[in-house]
Amino acid sequence: MTHTDPFLALSTRTGRFSYGSPRAAAFSADGTRLLFLRSTGPQDPVDRLWLLDLTTRQETMVADPVALAPQRTGALADLPAPERRLRERLRLWAPGIGSFAATADLSTAVFTLDGRLFRTDTTHGTTTELPTAAPAFDPRPDATGQRVAYVAEGALHLTPAPALHPGGPLSPRDGATWGMAEFAAAEELGRTRGHWWSPDGSAVLATRVDESALPLRHFADPAHPELAPESFAYPQAGGPNADVQLWVLGLDGHRVRLHWDATAFPYLTAAGWEGNGEILLTVADRLQQNVLLLTADPVTGRTAELSRTTDEFWVDDVPGTPARLDDGRLLTAADTPDGRARGVALDGRILSTERIQVRRVVGRLRGRLLVEANEEEPADQHVYLLDPDGGAPERLTAGAGVHSATAGGETLLLTSADADGIRRRIHFRGEEFPLADHAEPLPYRVVPQLARVTELGLPTAVVYPRGHLAGQRLPVLLDVYGGPGAQAVAAEPRRWQHRQWWADQGFAVVTTDNRGTPFVSPGFTRAIFRRFSRVALDDQVAALRALGERHPDLDLDRVGVRGWSYGGYFAAMAVLRRPDVFHAASAGAPPTDFRLYDTAYTERYLGLPQDNPEGYRADCLVEDAPALSRPLLLIHGLADDNVHPSHTLRLSQALTRAGRPHSLLALPGVSHLTPNGTHEQLAALELDFLRGALT
Questions:
Q1: For residue 679, what are the contacts with CB-CB under 8 A and spacing of at least 6?
Q2: Which residue from 191, 542, 571, 617 has the fewest beta carbons nearer than 10 Å?
Q3: At what angle do helices 6-13 and 497-504 cross, to 10 degrees?
């Protein structure tokens, strides 16, 4: 796909400036080796597997998909359906090695390419293809690296197969799917895997997923009518969820199911071994107001409750919790006593302070907890050490930006992203050195004008065209997300590149995080409880007006809005319900009726449709169709398995029946991710639409 615009063409060639950047970094247990994925340069999309020996600082490519599978290197269309869907859940769209799993010492790594299973000896850089029963998915090595578990055709297999299962899967043939994360877990609950080796390699802990009660979603490609539609089970709000069980499958034939009250706690959010004699698992109730950490006996299957986290709204996820430390103490998420911050508690004692919002528990380092958090400015993120025995948090990073961490043993990898770019520094045995990044340098140095506005302290940003002169009035483009779980106003430089491009087309680009978005305070996030639309719309309008007073060059008589997914929902809602404020909208992949969206996301915030019918009805846009009086462009990929294209098509149908003109752009074969230059092509089309509507 080619573009005449130089920036859009460069963005396409460089994978939105991500090709050549290291990702998926993992340390060995002793912190002396690092495995990661990276392509060879800024215009090479194919991710290879690399090993960095920290003692010698020698970096080696240990697996090259171009050499292993020269005809097919992981393009999304070539992947088995489970792998393709997992990449959608993980938001991965570059070809090559999507993910890998390795032994604790990183001596052995395994991965798949187009369903073929490979094992790499990282010490010698040799890779061997392993036999599989069918196209393989999500391989995991045992502790020795000699045996690999993988999923094929919905069953859990081992290679080499154990004596008791010489020609068949380790899991029973009972019509269920084994060893995979179901849609709700992978898309909404943070669990993307479904099987775990025991430390001694004698058994595999595996999920058993029965989706027979779920409705099917179908996807047809109208550009290829000769192809049969693709279908998959989808948990629709208010309807049944998948029946998820956990089983211990012994290589000796012994099988036992882990027992908990799955009716009251249907969501399995995490699982794993804590030694050969114990399994830990985390489960949540349907509305995610109660989260339990359970211990399980792998021999009997009996479970016992270790901790319970409760919230009258919903339990905000803090990745890395709940967990048990090596000394037996329990780490859970908890609000600070004044309710101003989300933090962590150890055996019920708050470790963090109201000064910081804990976002993620990374792990352990030098006997303390390594966490990512922010202070007063939610656009920034820093890395801290928390002392389990008390004491003030120690901040390891400095300066505005988004700082993150990975650790292993006593080694630390710090990634710092700010207006000057992205830097990765390894701290090893008292020395510091970079992890090489071969990505295209960012073309723009963008310093958005940040402000907290209104009495609510809404985080906002304004980006002007380069060379803008005071006194030149500009149409406003609200580039919005606005939904729970995602932050738009953050000091991460890549996300501002396209906003600067939009500004250079003649707009003042405004971005606001309304209530319901994370990392300001628990109360700020929970303001959307049982109703999405009202708070988001009120806050965005109030922020626009406040920014108009601060920035006289913002022409609030010409306001366009664009967004994708929840941002697309907001964009369509804006012109339908507030045409006095918003004068044109480009709405991409909008979930126009949350009664048709998935259980785990929607019910967390809106409750069950049966219990909150008014809230669901108020958040549905279809009935607003007769009110459209402003230009509206609807965009949707017809292969979108996250927000099904029926959301947009039903709104378009209602608009047509009401006689309301609008534009509809349907994209055959395009998913929610808009890969392979589609994002840039859409930007050019949106620009033509918005210019015509606002000038």
A1: 11, 16
A2: 617
A3: 160
Q: How far is CA 611 from CA 238, 595, 608, in A?
A: 9, 12, 5
Q: Give the amino acid at 144.
A: T
**For residue 391, pLDDT beyond 90:** no
CA distance 358 to 678: 35
pLDDT at 496 over 60: yes
Residue 53 lies in a domain: no
End-to-end CA distance of the chain: 29
Query: What pLDDT score does 26 carry?
Result: 98
Rg (CA), the chain: 25
Q: Are residues 368 and 461 in the same domain?
A: no
User: What confidence category does residue 78 fall into, taking pLDDT thresholds of 50, 70 and 90?
Assistant: low
Q: Examine residue 170 and state whether it is found in any structural domain, yes or no.
A: no
Q: Indicate whether 393 and 453 sit together in one domain.
A: no
Q: What is the pLDDT of residue 76?
A: 57
Say whether both 488 and 560 belong to one domain: yes
Q: What is the residue-wise DSSP string for 215-283?
A: PEEEE--TT-TTSPPEEEE--BTTSPPPEEEEEEEETTS-EEE----TTT--EEEEEEESSTT-EEEEE
Q: Is residue 211 part of a domain?
A: no
Please determine, for residue 644, whether its predicted confidence score (pLDDT) is greater than 70. Answer: yes
With 0.90 as the threshold, say if the pTM is over it: yes
What was the pLDDT predicted at 2? Answer: 52
- The H-or-E segment that residue 403 falls in is strand 402-408
Model pLDDT, residue 352: 76
Which letter does DSSP use for residue 384 in this model? E
Sequence-ordered list of residues with C-beta below 8 angstroms from that of 345, at least 6 positions apart, any chain: 331, 332, 333, 334, 351
The rounded distance, in Å, linking the Cα atoms of 559 and 579 is 10
Domain extent at residue 390: 320-397
For residue 392, name the pLDDT band (cuts at 50, 70, 90).
confident
Residues 381 and 488 in one domain: no
Q: Describe the crossing of helices 533-550 and 566-577 by its angle, rounded to 10 degrees.
A: 80
**What SS3 string covers 84-140?**
HHHHHHHCCCCCECCCCEECCCCCEEEEEECCEEEEEECCCCEEEEECCCCCCEEEE
Domain count, the chain: 2
In-domain check, residue 126: no
Q: Using an 8 Å Cβ cutoff, are 513 and 535 in contact?
A: no
What lies within 8 Å, CB to CB, of 144 at 6+ separation is: 103, 108, 201
With cut-offs at 50, 70 and 90, classify the pLDDT of residue 524: very high
- Could you give the C-alpha distances from 324 to 320, 366, 424, in angstroms and in order? 10, 17, 30
19 contacts 43 by C-beta, under 8 angstroms: yes
Q: Which residues pair with 178 in a beta bridge?
A: 208
**Residue that the structure tokens 């020269």 belong to:** 70
The whole-angstrom separation of Cα 57 and Cα 376 is: 38
**Tokens standing for 248?**
């211990």
